[in-house]
Request: fold
Amino acid sequence: MWRTGGWNVMTEQKKRGKAILQVQDLTKRFGGLVAVNNLTLDVCEGEICALIGPNGSGKTTVLNLITGIYEIDGGSVTFENAQIQGEPPHSICWRGVARTFQNIRILGGQTVFENALLGKGYGNGGSGVLQTVLDTVKFRKERETFTAEVDEILEFVGLSDLRNERARNLPYGKQRILEIGRALITKPRLLLLDEPAAGLNSKEIYDLMELIEKINDRGITVLLIEHRMELVGKLANLVFVLNHGSKIAEGSFDVIKEDPAVIEAYLGKGGN
Amino acid sequence: MTPAILIQLAVNGIAIGAIYALPALGISLIWNAAGLFNFAQADLLTLGAYVMYALVVSAKIPYIWAFIITTIVMGLLGYLLSRIYFYPMIENRVNPHIVLIGTVALSVFIQNLLLVIWGTTPKSVVNPFGYMPFRVGDIFVMPHVVWIVAIVSVLLLLLQFFLRRTLIGTGMRAVAQQQIASWLMGIRNDRMIALTFLLSTAIAATGGVLISAVFPLTPRMGSMIAVKAMAAVLIGGLGSFSGALVGGLAVGISETIFATLVNPAYRDVFIFAVLITFLIFKPGGIFKAEISEKV
Amino acid sequence: MAKLQQVFKRYGLLILGILLLVAPLVSAQYQFYVLERGVQNAIHVMGLLILIGYSGMLSLGSAGLLATGAYAYALLLLKLGFSPWLGAIFAVVITTLVGLCLAFPAFRLSGPFLAVTTIGFGEIIRILILNLEPITGGAYGVSGYSKLFANELHVYFFMVVALICIAIGTERLGRSRIGLALKATKEDEIAAEVMGVNVKRAKVVAFALSAMLAGLSGVILANLAGYLSPDSFTSAESSSYLLMVVMGGMNSAIGVIVSSIVVTWLPEVLRFLSSSRLLVYSLVLLVYLRINHVPATRERFLGILRKFGIRRAADAAEDPCGERGAGM
Ligand SMILES: Nc1ncnc2c1ncn2[C@@H]1O[C@H](COP(=O)(O)OP(=O)(O)O)[C@@H](O)[C@H]1O
Ligand SMILES: [Mg+2]
Reply:
């Protein structure tokens, strides 16, 4: 009934703040398949937005395009008023965009602490090889601040007691949290989460929900891909719905869930 | 330089190219089935050649029988290699780098085993094809060229038939495409991978038999052939059947032309240069689409 | 006991260094030469630890870089009249630059593709040395260049001190965020990139450091041997370095030093091996990989060790640096 556009979105737009991420006409093809088709969406500072859609609708691909993992076939991505498309992933990360993966990608052989420290990256200033090898004063200072920051974040996400455990020995839910923690170490202003609740039990989902709210309270904008509708309903200020790579609806969760196009997209696919 | 000379060189190169194509094909088959790049494929070829030498020259077994025995023995060796060495590693999801190092170690092991058993003196096996070249226009064709090309062609046709038309072949291709799915369908991955090793090693051994007819054997020969086989497989496209063949012929012909017209000392440098250029600028090779990792 | 272990963990490198420094006092002349070669190999293999162990880039062309270092030193002295120290410095710089060239293919290639490229690279260098006879002496080799130290013992002390410093630096690097960036590059390049690791830069660093160490090792080799020929730099030779880095555990500098020296020493202790050195090395490597990386075999093997009362060794091997599975 209330398709997006028109009055509904206009008023929402007025209430929204400054855009932190603007995706314009984003397109990605894999051979003949158009995985993302002319997608336009804005995420504003301080919001929690959700990107939903049936399996294979191109959500993960959107994140991969934003973070520079895939090359963009058309359109643009603007983060904090700078066009970032075409930049390598690490420099997009340095700009303040962090993410997690749908299939956890942590370093199994390394400890929790080391995994988190990885979020400090490499190549973005700080001590180089020579200083590290010579163990200079600057390097030691830097190491101390890094350690403090990492410990602070581990405390924040609740992994302090597992600090020296090897990541692969962690239960699945904790590994997901570790991935979020690692993303936070990069000091993002925009955090992209790809199905963070996948495979979690309801207690863990509840904790995750709290964590995402806490992260948002720190002033970090969140764009969330999620299948669990209770999570989306609870957290998201604004929901974008994707089907076959195109945006079919945009609005608050309550509006979206009544949208016939959305219902059809899910039911048509045999989804929930 | 006349076109006739070029054609003459190309004809000479075809035979050796067809031989390079055999280990190249083995590398591709194993890569498809097990996701494993076998650095030792050319050394398995050399081992086959030495087994042939032992059978024909030392044990005085008739040539054809020796040929058959060599192929069978080497095939079994390949089967065992997979069953007791490589498959357990693959099954346990050992880091691919480790398995890769394993194949490098295998290559060095075979080379040095040959060295310890047969020494450095080059060994020759009789050339069963004769030495009487025949003439086509201005071109002279050695009989071994015809024989090698014919044998390799028949071998490839048989293999193609086996992979496409038989139940086992279909199973092997299924494993190559989707290990988990084929396992769910009741195809035994371990057997299929072992069979792939068997086939690949037998094919390499056939290459060894053919090369023993043309060149004297040395233990380190494998290194030289490995370079050509890897070049063939990577230029043609890793995992591609036709790629291995085309790559092998391209390498054989171009190296013969280069060695004759430019400088034989830099033949391997030339092949490496071509190979590295391909790897950097067209990493998928000729016959393979570039696929991106799904994130 | 536990305390002793801790002491060793903390000061292991220093203890090892002191042991190496006093070793010449107690060893015979020939054993001493083997020890020298072991230390020289360890310097080279330390570079492979960074390249293969930390960063997971399988290089089979390191013999080529070793050759570059050794020949550059000899030729700079012989043909251009450099003084030994200046020649040594330039040789290391040249090798580093040559090795850097390899980082560029590594931007696009990994695993077997990179390995093939490095083999090609090593072979090209060897063939060039073999064929550019007017400059390199071809198959006859080069000799007659002067050395860094007049006294052979001084070369050795220089080497050991250098090795220990390098090992300390390598360990520090391994624990730092740069080391972590390298290890992440090995395990998951995409995750590393997304976490802000400039993977290209990390690869350049890994190649540069390993080439630098290969160059240094080559210079020392030239000083130890007094004569260079292309035969010492075949790609098969690279497999012995591979064995040293793999047996060293791929994660620890001490491991590299111990395994380099032991592997160099092995054929000297077991004389019958000397003609088939590489045969045994490769066999050991094959068996080690198979046992160490297949849990079932590993358990059985440790069980046998325990039965024969080698308990402690077995327990220590149970989880060397906890790197099991992720090893490499
Ligand atoms: N690297 C790739 N190569 C080819 N096709 C891809 C690749 N990545 C994604 N796709 C395809 O793009 C479509 C969208 O995938 P994806 O973004 O993962 O969907 P979602 O995350 O919404 O489930 C799917 O059809 C998928 O098969
Ligand atoms: Mg997805």
User: Anything to note?
Assistant: Residues 46 and 60 of chain B are 19 Å apart (CA to CA). The beta strands of chain B are 134-136, 139-141. The first helix of chain B runs from residue 3 to 34.
